[in-house]
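Recall that a protein's primary structure is simply its ordered list of amino acids. Everything else, from secondary elements to tertiary packing, is in principle encoded there. The following example makes that idea concrete.
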Amino acid sequence: MRWLSAIPLLAAIAVATGCGQNVAIDETTETTPTAPIAAEAEKETSTSESVPTNDEAAVTVNDTAAEAATLAGVYVEGDIAIAGADPVAYFTESAYVPGSDQFTHEWSGAVWQFASAENRDAFAGDPLKYAPQYGGYCAWAVSQGYTAPVDPEAWKVVDGKLYLNFNQNIQARWARDIPGNIAKADANWPAVVEN
């Protein structure tokens, strides 16, 4: 009789993998990878670095629209944005750098951490310049129509904008068509975070 209690869980998993939707299957607060991300993960290698794209694929958005979209939702763990990564360091050091609870700034309903007071002040002066696209949710997931958490070490700066991914395997998949995936994600955002 114990196996009968697993039927609703199995149905939720089947729906999540079959429909590509982010479905909560555990009522705890622990963040688990979504089924669509897990299905997309492959054994690939990738390095994180700045990647230029051609001008034809670039999407220009005015600052007001960009701010409204960013404010739609920010990926947080607890109340800390983007797993505590220093968003400014991706631009100034071309590297993932963990932030510190010594240098924080509250913006868009989340606490952002920084490695230095200089980085904190730079972010506070122009958060849209440094904040990751899609609120810091996985860029690949948003391009596919759902949200997923990120690994702050799976990142790219493209045309002066920061994009994060679930992990480096998913990042490699996203990198196969960066302009196309950005266009799809831009079309999906912020509606996916509202669902």
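The CA atoms of residues 75 and 162 lie 14 Å apart. The first helix runs from residue 7 to 19.
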